[in-house]
Amino acid sequence: MLLxxxxxxxxxxxxxxQLEAPQEGFFDVRSAGTAMVAGVHELEARxxxxxxxxALDALGSGVPLTIELSMEVIRVRRxxxxxxxxxxxxxxxxxxxxxxxxxxxxxxxxxxxNSFATLYSALNNLGRIQGLPVIDxxxxxxxxxxxxxxxxxxxxxQYPAPLRILFFWRSQWQLKSDWYQWNLER
Length: 186
Known about the structure:
Oligomer: single chain
Shape: elongated
């Protein structure tokens, strides 16, 4: 059923899309930083998440979308290449429920779930990251300099292989922000 709904959403062009140019989607990290709270570095970030027309059609057809936040903690070294000390991926699922006309945002890492009346409010909530624990300061080497980077992307890994191949060739499913980097304050 999921495969059929997604195939229909991807392959069929709705009438409104024939009359106007398809909406280009994009993901952008507007700002990001960390703050130390009780010995743990917590992420504060603002993202802009604009879904493409194909992703919106799939969402409206009942296909859940997966949005991933990838983070890396990188130790800066002088005479050697920088070293990725830690990696963290936080995965969110965005789903539309037509019966209740609600958008559901679920954090797949923690299980937390919120419901929203509009897609705008759901994407706005996804774009406001506050107090997300990233790494315990005790795990970092004393006296070393670190930087962090963050990227947001629309993941297609949860779909069957034939659809992933199709998505690879369709630019409207290649939504990924550039890496946003900053120095980790200790």
